[in-house]
Amino acid sequence: MSAEKKVSLAEKRRQKKVDCDKLCPEWGCAQPYEYEGVWVVGEVDEQGITEPSLQMLTPARRIADKLETFVEGILLGSDREQLEKAAKEMIYHGADRVRILVSEELATYIPGVYGEAIARLAEARKPEVIFLAATMRGREIAPYVAGLLKAGITADCTQFEVDEETGDLLMIRPPFAAILLAYIKTPFRRPQIATARPNIFPLPPRDESREGEIVWENPEDYKLSKPPISLVKVEMLKRSEVPIEKAEYIVSGGRGVGTKEGFKTLEELAEILGGVVAGSRKAVDLGLIPHERQVGQTGKSVRPKLYIAVGISGAAQHVIGIREAGLVVAINKDPDAPIFKNADYGIVADWREALPILIEELRKLKERSGKTG
Amino acid sequence: MSLKVVVGIKWVPNTQAVRFDPKTGTLIREGVPSIVNPHDLDAVELALQLKERYGAKVTAISMAPPSAIKGLEHVIGMGIDDAILVSDRVFAGSDTLATSYVIAQTLKRIGDFDLALFGQETIDSSTAHIPAQVAGWLELPYMYYVDRVEEVDEKQRTVTVRRMLEDRLEWYQLKMPAILGVAMKSQKPRPVSIYNKLRVRMENPIQVWSNKELGLDPRCLGLKGSPTLVSKVTWTPEVPRKKQVIEGPPSEAVKKLVEKLCEEGVLPFEC
Ligand SMILES: Cc1cc2nc3c(=O)[nH]c(=O)nc-3n(C[C@H](O)[C@H](O)[C@H](O)COP(=O)(O)OP(=O)(O)OC[C@H]3O[C@@H](n4cnc5c(N)ncnc54)[C@H](O)[C@@H]3O)c2cc1C
Ligand SMILES: Cc1cc2nc3c(=O)[nH]c(=O)nc-3n(C[C@H](O)[C@H](O)[C@H](O)COP(=O)(O)OP(=O)(O)OC[C@H]3O[C@@H](n4cnc5c(N)ncnc54)[C@H](O)[C@@H]3O)c2cc1C
């Protein structure tokens, strides 16, 4: 036992070999040791780098440290100034280096073009891991990148680890039943590509003293195929309500609320708290709220200060979406509802009775604090 | 020469009927019927509208075990012209890359299609990978979250579609052949008609292709052709919560709850 020399994980990774004859010939073959580094693809919009892509630096930093390798941010676009600002943010949040591809072809966002650019960069630079945030745009680009690279991809991960024996990335996600977790790996194929939904990981601490290199890639090296797609027009939607993933107070309703009328009462409570209304998948299926307000495994993960679940049974697929919530309150008429095991405070009651009282009590408090404060 | 549209259909266990064994946390699959992935019906409906507007011929394809014939019969009942069931034991255990490979090769064998429509995601594994991966294999233009086809220009061979993101509507024009992911709940799928259902018996519109027809390298199929591998399964760690149920009649319990919320300091106003 003691005679065995301790081999570092970095060493084990370099020793890893795959038998090319066993792999699908369509994939092309490369050895895992040719790949190095953890990439985070940064999504940039009119406001700059988006929060979900910065959140991905949290697992990236942890995994890179375990693998004894670096974290690299990847940015694409046409506006140098904006991209440089985004690059600095990525470095402040934990990236060691940021690689930027600036090209006129990237002036408008077209998923196929962005996806191709990422794939071309990955073919040239050979990262070991690529992380993307599973925003609507991330969800459409990531599988295209994987399709072009003929690489494995795991969607909607909730955790990442490293296999101590092989150095393979363990991409951990809830399978069909959210009570279980599946550990997925891609031992014969690099890069290892994975996405995670916004808010699954916290934003890493921002440190303006962090330094890192910014590498401007030469667009001549990455000629993209002429895109057979064009953006015809865009119409911004006026959204008055705060999206649930950003809300500090959420009143969430399930099948137990039953009707649109019932959801009006939830709205009243949300308004007093300055929050928003969300719901379970059953509420979405019944047409009581839109899918973008669904909390859970196939909806959104939320992290409010306070989450009030009304008439929600607390299925595993639902509560996975409130793991990061501060305080959870449940109101349900069934004392055995599993939501009570996933809540801080519970009230066993018909919501039709309990909610009006809660609204009244909170309104009184609010008015009083408004007068004194 | 009329428009040719293909729709991808997944045969999935009806999640509404799925129960979990609370002791082992595993699925109880027995007696769980399979259905056509509900989000694929939006793609079927959009394809049928193209049939009405442009006289398109619509073919459904599904990579699935033989029982999926029932699902294909269902969409033919809705008005789809014909269907191909791609079924072979060597496809078992496919991850999304291997699945998309078989679908891409099926499309290649069909050959002259203009549009391939897919559901946005499935209700059982919901990765939303397949449409983009198929586009990757075939290097075709693709678009997700499409809720409307504005126009098909058969001369220029282009399609103009609308899609909705969280904060904007976007219109894109794609050169055909193109791949579209149809937004969930964006259409009102029509019911099955008896007339169409009868066609299943009269015309025998469902073909079955195995890997004999496709002739694909077994190293690219099923478990072998799947780079992702499930290495183990564990329980989800529980999030620590106080789990305090506040007793008493609603009015008292609510008042106690408000006191607790004040103590916790989570309210947006002073107590
Ligand atoms: C693959 C998969 C993914 C899924 N993803 C999600 C997801 O992302 N999000 C999600 O939410 N679900 C998801 N589900 C569905 C999930 O399993 C549950 O079916 C769903 O969360 C239940 O919704 P519910 O709690 O509103 O309804 P129910 O389970 O029907 O519960 C209703 C509750 O209301 C209570 N009630 C009824 N009347 C009253 C009253 N008057 N006052 C107070 N309480 C009352 C009842 O006691 C009951 O507990 C998924 C399922 C699968 C299989
Ligand atoms: C819980 C769970 C999680 C999984 N996670 C992953 C993962 O992260 N990565 C991975 O590689 N594999 C994963 N798999 C395997 C994956 O589910 C299968 O490869 C499956 O065949 C396709 O994935 P999907 O259902 O997510 O399809 P999606 O990409 O969500 O499907 C989108 C659309 O593609 C079409 N489509 C999908 N399948 C077919 C088909 N067989 N025939 C015709 N059209 C079809 C339908 O129109 C569908 O609406 C997972 C499986 C399970 C059960």
Model description:
The complex is a heterodimer of chains A (373) and B (271). Chain A has 373 residues and is of the alpha/beta class. Chain A folds into two domains: 17-221, 3-Layer(aba) Sandwich (Rossmann fold), CATH 3.40.50; 244-372, TPP-binding domain (Rossmann fold, 3-Layer(aba) Sandwich), CATH 3.40.50.1220. Chain A is 29% helix and 23% strand. Chain A is built from ten helices and 18 strands. A seven-stranded parallel β-sheet of chain A has the order 7-11-6-1-4-5-12, with helices on both faces. A five-stranded parallel β-sheet of chain A has the order 15-14-16-17-18. In chain A, helix 5 packs across helix 6 and helix 7 (260-273) runs parallel beside helix 10. Chain A is globular, with a radius of gyration of 24 Å. The N and C termini of chain A lie far apart (69 Å). The mean pLDDT of chain A is 93. With 271 residues, chain B is of the alpha/beta class. Chain B folds into two domains: 4-220, Rossmann fold (3-Layer(aba) Sandwich), CATH 3.40.50.620; 240-271. Helices cover 29% and strands 29% of the residues of chain B. Chain B has seven helices and 15 strands. Chain B has helices spanning 40-54, 69-78, 96-110, 130-138, 194-203, 211-214, 250-264; strands at residues 4-8, 11-13, 19-20, 27-28, 34-36, 57-63, 82-86, 115-119, 142-153, 158-164, 168-175, 178-182, 206-209, 229-235, 244-246. In chain B, strand 10 and strand 11 form a beta hairpin. In chain B, helix 2 crosses helix 5 and helix 3 (96-110) crosses helix 4. The mean pLDDT of chain B is 94. At the A-B interface, helix 5, helix 6, strand 7, strand 10 and strand 13 of A face helix 3, helix 4, strand 9, strand 11 and strand 14 of B. Strand 10 (180-185) of chain A pairs antiparallel with strand 14 of chain B, so a sheet runs across the interface. The structure holds flavin-adenine dinucleotide (2 copies). One flavin-adenine dinucleotide sits between chains A (176, 254-256, 280-283, 294-299, 311-313, 315, 317-318, 331-334, 337, 350-352) and B (15, 18, 124). One flavin-adenine dinucleotide (FAD) sits between chains B (8-10, 37, 39-40, 43, 61-64, 94-97, 99, 103, 118-119, 121-122, 124-131, 228) and A (153-155, 175-176).
